[in-house]
Specification:
- This protein is mostly beta strands.
- The chain has 2 domains: 78 residues, Elongation Factor Tu (Ef-tu), domain 3, CATH 2.40.30; 93 residues, Elongation Factor Tu (Ef-tu), domain 3, CATH 2.40.30.
- Helices cover 13% and strands 38% of the residues.
- It is built from 4 helices and 12 strands.
- The strands form 2 sheets. The protein has a 6-stranded antiparallel beta barrel. A 6-stranded antiparallel barrel has the order 7-8-11-10-9-12.
- The longest helix has 11 residues.
- Homotrimer.
- InterPro entries: ATP_synth_asu-like_sf (IPR023366), Lumazine-bd (IPR001783), Lumazine-bd_dom (IPR026017), Riboflavin_synthase-like_b-brl (IPR017938).
- One of its GO terms (molecular function) is riboflavin synthase activity.
Amino acid sequence: MFTGIIQEVGSMIAVDQQEKAMQLTIASEKLTKDMHIGDSIAVNGVCLTVTSFTSHAFRVDVMPETFRDSSLSNLRSTDAVNLEPALQPSGRLGGHFVSGHVDTTGTILSIRDESNARYVDIGVTEGLQYLMKKGSVSVDGVSLTVFDVQDDLFTISLIPETRKATILGNKKAGDLVNLEFDQLAKYMERLMGYQNSPQPAGITTETLAQHGFMD
């Protein structure tokens, strides 16, 4: 489990790409100081497991499903990546709950600056039902607030600190980004689907309303 608050921007040292999988070696000066084999690290929002490490770098494997469903397959040596270690129970939840299981990818359509904000429109082909204005979304592992939702895109805003502390500040139109939608929205959709099944699980719109989950 992660929070979407990036702890370090690392850089790719080596990308060993097979037909449907990858092994990544990533330079890190901060996270390796308290790292163990088997640790979960979110790399551009994708939860990966540390298989080996030194004082300055660590290695992770990318399985075929992750290779297909994320933008990691586009990584090249020297590329910068967002890094976040798994949330400790005593840690602060500064963003929102992020699982590190990417739902899909989106394409940056346009970028515009207004005062100290940078607005980014991201095109998507699926998952818009999980987004709402002022809701949460993870973009390349960064917890962000949704500012607008349209038929085939949504808009986020990057403050100067986010642009400086993550790779999102260097993104441009046409770039692919990893997207993870809010878990609560996905669970709600799943639960609501049971009311039309032959054997409902006992959760209906009426019971949700009775317990304050719906207006």
